[in-house]
User: What shape does this take?
Amino acid sequence: MTAMREAYGHVAEKLLEFVEQRTTDQTGATMQVPARAYLDPEQWQREIDLIFKRLPLMLALTIELPNKGDYKAMEPMDIPVLISRGADGKARAFLNVCRHRAMKLLDEGTGNCARFSCPYHGWTYASDGRLVGVAEASTFGEVDKPALGLQELPCEEIAGMIFVILTPGLAIDVRSFLGGMLDDLAALRLETWYFHKTRRMEGANWKVAYDGYLEGYHFQAAHPETVTPRTPSNRAYYEAFGPHIRLGYPQHRIVELRDIPREDWGLRENLNYDFIRMLFPNFAMFLAPEMCQIAQLYPGRTPGTNVTMMSYIFPQAPAGEAERKTLDEMSDFFFDVVEREDYHMGLRVQQGLEAAPDAQITFGRNELGNQYFHKWVDYYLAGGELPEPALRDTRPEAALP
Ligand code: FES
Ligand SMILES: [Fe+2]
Assistant: This one.
């Protein structure tokens, strides 16, 4: 029995127990978070500086730029970033900014080319970032070409994903950042999937939006016709790997496990239960053969807004136009559910927070994933000075502060 099969089997057992006993995973106590934590421009800026600009962020899937010369230009939090696969096959990340007079080189999008040419005066860069051409060099004067390659960002490709830190010069170690989550992600073999498309969604404060991915308590009230037919509300099991979370949800069909040998329960992902895989601070993936959505959330231009890039991938490329259209419709259906149900809800929450900025909001014992996420935000805002948060507080409620 592989380790993964054993781990998933354990999750299946917990989920079945929760469904049969009409309960869910819980931590020891409720937790309050001040509304200001979602509103305060100063805290918001520190979240950008200490979290979004310091931690490895999953910025691209390997399958978005599989070939030599492929690139992806993107603008997380308006920072122009270029990820490029060099002639040596290695993926590198750069500030998408010309070293002559700081022109943004490429507009957002993907493509393939051996050279990047600046639209302003035509300086050119190789796919590994080297400055290779200075227009009318004899008239320009001295240029230290080796020193004026595109400014590189720390970047690592692992488990079919490309992680980047948005600050040049910081050390990157994705393997240790992901910890035990890495094996889980690697087993998905994302590098073999078919990349369909990415769409952009806008919504409330990034934490308001991310809160929505962290619990299934809202399924009954918010998704009565879309999620609830597959998944019962308020039944979930959480596992933490550092700040990252594997969140298990039972399907109604989980009761069928009773007719299946226990040693096979770990093989029943997407048949009897599903996972949301969440990477701190901003990544949430729902992966099933029929429908796969990867959300990457970023703070928007103000504390009250976020920009989410929604990517849709499938196990196989469509065989023809009709199949391609089917995949497109499935992607759009899912996008619409998140936009109409979750992000619409988030905007109403944002409005509520702004109306009562001195209030506290409360996360229930069943919303332990949210509690854990907010504790990790605080951990990073404190510069790692706090002890690492625990997912479950097992002390009796009376003993808690
Ligand atoms: S700014 Fe790029 S060539 Fe001048
Ligand atoms: Fe939702």
